[in-house]
Write a structure and sequence with these properties.
The protein is α+β, with helices and mostly antiparallel strands. The chain has 3 helices and 9 strands, in the order H-E-E-H-E-E-E-E-E-E-H-E. The protein has helices at 7-26, 62-67, 151-154, and strands spanning 40-47, 50-59, 79-89, 94-96, 104-109, 115-121, 134-136, 141-148, 162-164. The protein is 17% helix and 33% strand.
Length: 177
Amino acid sequence: MTLPLHGSFAVRLAQGLILAMLLAWQQPPAAADEASTLQRAPLEIHVGEERHRLEVELARTSAERQKGLMDRDHLAPEAGMLFLYQEAQPPQGGFWMYRTRIPLDIAFIDVDGRIAALHTMQPCASRNPYDCPVTVAGAVYHAALEVNAGYFEARGIEEGACVSWPGSQGSCPSAAE
């Protein structure tokens, strides 16, 4: 049996349903910390004769890049995410930390595989994405690498270091070698 909804009860019910949908949309998924389904690849950062090796997740599509490392509570010490682009990204392009819980370092990588800019980004606790600051690259980039905050400084990695991964077009030796 269906009862007709009238007056203020119907309005309150509709408002409640809308509020429930909005709250559900803002909540992280239950399986947020489960292993990612993104393809993984070895990556090396070359600093002089030293090579720092990472296992990175590859974010190739717009949807994968938008999701990034959102809703995760942990990133392994020798892990990261590599954001890959088909076209050069402008210096005004950047990254934000909306729904990202882990402090991160980011390296913007140029067409030659060299780190063009380095930044550290802090989590943004706001539920409003527009309240989260954007970290602007400040240089043209073709890829961006996110790792745990402090990773680059602890290893003496600076702008100009060469980054390689299988399929990269840069001038440093391949990570597969």
